[in-house]
Amino acid sequence: MSVTASSASKAEPGTYTLALTSNLAELVKLSTWVETLAGELSLSGEAAFKLELVLTEAVTNIIQHGYDDETDCAIEIRLRHLVNTLHLEISDTAKPFNPLHQPEVVFPRSLEEAGEGGLGIHLIRNYTDECYYQRREQRNVLTMVLSTAKPEGNPSNS
Hints:
28% strand; alpha+beta; disordered N terminus; 6-stranded antiparallel β-sheet; globular; Heat Shock Protein 90
């Protein structure tokens, strides 16, 4: 699998893009892309995990809820790699939906009360350092920022 990279100049951060369609099978393509990027960018295991988790949750929500499982609709991912930071932008033409307007998750008191799903937006909020939504030119645009810096006092790379 090749990773599409573009950069206007050496002084600018690396920019990587991935085009997907609204089919759950595309999550395999996304996972392979993230794995390739993690290696190319020398991401720690923790940073790679967070990156894959938030992208998978966001793309799954777009496919299942934004496009109502309609296949062959476009989803675009753009990643900019800055020093110790990843800026992710996911855009789609699905129905307007601001995930950040959704209420916080209320956790069940027991397994019997627990339902299936409903944690994707919660995970995105908790695994990103910043998260923004815009509706631009008939597109949903979700921007997420993840720190890739290793915590001080933790020299390990995993």
